[in-house]
Write a structure and sequence with these properties.
The complex is a heterodimer. The radius of gyration of chain A is 21 Å and the shape is globular. In chain A, about 30% of the residues lie in helices and about 20% in strands. In chain A, helix 4 crosses helix 7. In chain A, strands 1-14-13-17-15-16 form a six-stranded mixed β-sheet. In chain A, strands 2-8-7-4 form a four-stranded antiparallel β-sheet, with no helix packed on it. Chain A has a four-stranded parallel β-sheet with strand order 11-10-9-12, sandwiched between helices. The N and C termini of chain A lie far apart (about 50 Å). Helices cover about 35% and strands about 10% of the residues of chain B. Chain B is built from eleven helices and eight strands. In chain B, the strands form four sheets. Chain B has a two-stranded antiparallel sheet. In chain B, a hairpin with a 6-residue loop joins strand 2 and strand 3. Chain B starts with a helix and ends with a helix. The chains are: A alpha/beta, B alpha+beta. At the A-B interface, helix 14 of A face helix 5 of B.
Chain lengths: ~450, ~290
């Protein structure tokens, strides 16, 4: 019997079209636009001027405060301007535009493919390196990794959990990383274990990636304390709290963090980025992105420099199909439709999905038929139908009592609703209002 | 048989009498005195319960009015001066000076002026769209046209025009309760002082971007060029955050700023058509 989380969950069609495509390098674009806010927390401060020459890996915006990371240039060339552009948030954000010249990296970066297994840095040095190298959670939430690695006083971590679930349909970037860079990922996990001072790490992988499970199992034999756990295929298995419950049977209480149950969760992509930062001295300026879609001629997985416009990625995958209805950044369940194709790839872009017109539309919203399917599928045990109507009627205090902030916006309720009601849209509205309200209360 | 009926009637009468006596004393003990004027005032108020006065309903305003020493800060925006005069008469106080107000939309970005750059197919709700993205055009300040204000209005004073896609506010129906002001997530609706013949001059734009991006996003955007501020003789125009604002209490409706504005973002409404300028012909000057 495979492990999984106990309540809720859905089974959307997997559509992992690119599971067999090797990771390729995407050509460096002529210009990149690197937003200064690619992580949760304070945006970085721009530290270059127009006309400056930069090399790949050079810091172009420095972190501001603890919950913030450095931003690095992903190409070598000249800074063209610091201006605004629409990024994945849907709003204009400050970004640094760089015209590419050649491909020169900082001399300190080790560009060889040689595997380095010996970890020389101490725990504190690793955490510092993560912030300097701009490492954030690459699963999509983009929470600065060094914050998670810094265990607050009075709390302890006894097990590291690595998220290799990739439960979102279509996406295969973590899957390919495990297959092609398994050793590097495992070294990265060992580094994270050293930083957290734990001797046990559990990698959770959904059972539809049997090749990755087998591959990592053989590799992990030579690493101490790393266990591979196949998990049942169920969305959202990759959600932090659900993964902890499945692997350790510990339940994160409402409004608390994984560290409160002595665990820390990191993503496969993050482990790989940590390996590159610590062992190869390479800051986070490129990542694996899945570009996929049913009508796309050549879907695939690419290593993409941060700041590359999405249209370059679409070009490499064979061009925009005519029947495209929506271009989604992230997974189809939790991702967000893009406003245009000039939007740059950022640290949190795990995939770009081109959804055909006939699948992109919404069904007409009808009245709630009280079937309670949304309650049955909610992995957090909430009542989505109730949260929706409370948000609709501006009853935010009641919504707060109904634990609206526990919603992780997985979208299982909207996906399931037979009446096509926009449950998550309103819950998201209510959640953001409640969070704003509670912040104002703290200020007062 | 007859004795049973008599005993029953007697017992019940006794119980009823005792209960009446108890009820009488309890009622005396727990008597709540309520100013009868509250009912009188409430009867005059419009009973719309719109919340425009800041209270939950008309009854609450009536209580506050009766309790209050002066009417400062207490008015019924719906009823206006006539209702407040009647209330003042009942309570024997000075009637307050009620300034009638009217809601205006500070955005004029119809598709004609503001080109579409994307299509929104999500929930037709302004707040959700505002949480999600900057809008279907390049302006991240303008109106979505999804009608949160229309749904908020209890007086059917707002509708979305099919031509411009923007809300239209009826001057006659608007009671300036402020429900739409609260409903708009982009804070585009403003309550302005009502002028004679419903005349209005205001900057129909809320774009705080610099001139260049604002103009590229919308042809009728305020580009903060300062021309209106310079031409205004009454110090009524202020420019803050790259956006001009006309103070309705200082404006004298001279309309100079309207002609000066290079983008046409200042609107003049309900004015008679301007007289065509008498162009002094070169020939006559020469002669």
């Amino acid at each position: 019997m495979l492990k999984t989380f106990p309540i809720g969950g859905v089974h959307p069609p997997e559509n992992k079209l690119t599971a067999g495509s090797k990771i390729q390098k995407l050509d460096i674009p002529a210009t990149v636009a690197i937003p200064i806010s690619q992580h949760i927390g304070a945006p970085a401060t721009v530290s270059v001027n127009k006309g400056d020459s930069v090399k790949a890996g050079q810091v172009i915006a420095t972190s501001k405060g603890f919950v913030s990371v450095n931003i690095h240039s992903s190409v070598s060339g000249k800074v063209n301007k610091v201006d605004t552009l629409i990024d994945t948030s849907g709003y204009k954000q400050t970004a640094i535009f760089i015209d590419t010249q050649g491909d020169e990296w900082l001399e300190t970066i080790d560009r060889t493919d040689e595997l380095k297994t010996e970890i020389k840095l101490s725990s504190e040095e690793i955490i510092k390196k993560c912030q300097e190298s701009g490492i954030v959670g690459l699963g999509g939430a983009t929470f600065p990794s060094h914050v998670k690695l810094t265990v607050p006083a009075g709390k302890k971590c006894d097990v590291l959990i690595i998220n290799g679930v990739e439960c979102e349909p279509y996406l295969t970037s973590d899957h390919r990383l495990m297959l092609e860079h398994g050793k590097e990922v495992l070294v990265g996990i060992s580094i994270l274990m050293k930083a957290l001072k734990v001797n046990r790490a559990l990698i959770g992988i959904e059972n539809n990636k049997s090749d990755a499970i087998e591959h990592l199992k053989t590799l992990a034999a030579s690493f101490q304390g790393i266990e591979i756990w196949p998990l049942k295929v169920k969305y959202p298995q990759g959600a932090e709290k659900q993964l902890i419950k499945a692997l350790t049977n510990r339940e994160v209480p409402s409004g608390r963090l994984p560290i409160d149950v002595n665990t820390v969760v990191h993503n496969i992509g993050t482990a790989f980025a940590v390996y590159e930062a610590v062992q190869k001295n390479k800051p986070l300026f490129e990542r694996v992105v899945t570009i996929t879609g049913k009508s796309l001629p050549k879907p695939g997985n690419y290593i993409v420099r941060i700041g590359t416009p999405v249209n370059k990625l679409i070009e490499a995958a064979g061009g925009l199909p005519e029947n495209t209805g929506k271009i989604i950044s992230g997974g189809p369940m939790m991702g967000k439709a893009l406003i245009n194709t000039d939007v740059p790839v950022v640290k949190g872009t795990s995939g770009i999905i081109l959804v055909p017109q006939d699948e992109a539309g919404r069904s007409e919203s009808q009245v709630c038929i009280r079937c309670a399917k949304c309650i049955a599928v909610c992995p957090m045990g909430l009542e989505p139908y109730l949260l929706m109507s409370l948000s609709q009627k501006d009853l935010f205090e009641k919504a707060e009592k109904e634990r609206i902030t526990d919603c992780m916006e997985c979208g299982s309720c909207s996906y399931t609703c037979p009446a096509g009601r926009p449950l998550l849209d309103f819950i998201r509205l209510g959640k953001s209002t409640v969070i704003r309200m509670s912040r104002e209360r703290v200020v007062k | 048989m007859s004795s049973t009926v008599i005993i029953t009637v007697a017992c019940l009468s006794l119980i009823a009498f005792l209960a009446a006596v108890i009820l009488y004393f309890v009622a005396q003990k727990f008597k709540v005195f309520e100013d009868p004027r509250i009912d009188d005032v409430q009867a005059i108020l419009p009973a719309a319960n719109c919340g425009g006065c800041g209270f939950a309903g008309c009854r609450n305003l009536a209580e506050a009015l009766v309790k209050a020493e002066t009417f400062e800060g207490l008015t019924c925006p719906v009823g206006g001066a006539s209702v407040m005069d009647q209330v003042a008469k009942i309570l024997g106080k000075e009637p307050p000076v009620v300034e009638p107000k009217v809601a205006v939309l500070r955005c004029n970005g119809s598709p004609e002026f503001r080109a579409r750059t994307s299509i929104y197919e999500g929930v037709p709700d302004c707040r959700i769209a505002h949480n999600l993205f900057q809008g279907e055009t390049d302006c991240s300040y303008g109106c979505f046209g999804l009608g949160d204000c229309v749904r908020a209005c209890a007086f059917e004073a707002i509708y979305i025009s099919t031509e411009t896609g923007l809300p239209v506010i009826s001057d006659e129906k608007c009671v300036s309760c402020g429900a739409c002001v609260k409903a708009c997530p982009r804070k585009l609706i403003e309550l302005r002082k009502k002028a004679k013949k419903d005349r209005k001059i205001y900057v129909a734009c809320s774009n705080c971007d610099k001139g260049g991006p604002a103009r590229r996003a919308c042809k009728v955007a305020c580009i903060a060029c300062l021309k209106c501020q310079k031409v205004c003789e009454f110090d009524a125009i202020k420019i803050e955050n790259n956006l001009a604002y006309i103070d309705a209490t200082k404006c004298t409706f001279c309309r100079k700023c309207v002609t000066e504005c290079p983008t046409g973002s200042i609107l003049e409404i309900n004015f008679p058509p301007r007289k065509p300028k008498v162009e002094v012909q070169a020939e006559t000057v020469n002669a």
